[in-house]
Hints:
- By secondary structure, chain A is mostly beta strands.
- Chain A has no helices and eleven strands.
- Chain B is built from no helices and eleven strands.
- Chain B has strands spanning 5-7, 10-14, 19-24, 31-37, 43-50, 55-58, 61-66, 71-76, 85-93, 100-103, 107-112.
- Chain B is globular and about 45 Å long.
Amino acid sequence: GAVVSQHPSWVICKSGTSVKIECRSLDFQATTMFWYRQFPKQSLMLMATSNEGSKATYEQGVEKDKFLINHASLTLSTLTVTSAHPEDSSFYICSAGSWDIEEGYSNQPQHFGDGTRLSIL
Amino acid sequence: SQQGEEDPQALSIQEGENATMNCSYKTSINNLQWYRQNSGRGLVHLILIRSNEREKHSGRLRVTLDTSKKSSSLLITASRAADTASYFCATGFGSGGYNKLIFGAGTRLAVHP
């Protein structure tokens, strides 16, 4: 259980193109989805948190107009990299979680997609 | 800045040996989680330990948490070549419905046959 599917797995496109990445929870409802960015041999950096039906919360330094996040349903969140440039090339990973209303916060693990490698030429 | 730091950054051992990775963090946490990442792939959850727990086991994995020192360790016993991967600790914190994770720098483990 707890499978997260991320698509596409690899994208190569020209500078100036907008790229959409999808993150789906296949067998559970994800109240919250997270988007991370990872540079080679480095750790994951949290970009934003999205809750179903509300605006995403972006981490400091992440351009919300550059990285558009939509979480329209409990099973789908999308990240759109608008007018991508070579410096946006990276590995983008989504994760999904759910929270226990009784606890008030989640002590459950996040479930990660397999990532999307974005290369902008 | 990242919440956690891990050491060592890289670890190379022989099959059958134990591997120990350490993680330190800076602020109060709800829980600490360990994840594994194979090259170019997503992360796989290994163990979650809550802030009021001190030790947890799962198969060949043993995790300890010392909140007074703000540190945790992951021990992999009887390592196998298939354990070769990067291992990340992540501290979970936040309230109001979700748990943000801040990842450490990771330890790259190589297990040689």
